[in-house]
Design goal:
Blueprint (H helix, E strand, L loop, with lengths): L2 H20 L2 H42 L1
Helix pairs in contact: 1-2
Amino acid sequence: MSLEEKLNQAKGSVKEGFGKLTGDKKTEAEGTAEKVASKAKEVAEDAKEAVEGAIKGVKNIFHKDDN
């Protein structure tokens, strides 16, 4: 989970809220899109880290069997 993505999500939420507050549908939609895109990127990064961890675990199992 990257701090950058958390900040981008927060920025998108603020922009979305500002759009709602002012009645600016375009700004609201942009904020929503930024928030969702950052969340998707965060989820993808987390999934990549999980797969890398699983690969390391499998490699460790096979290396233990070699000894």
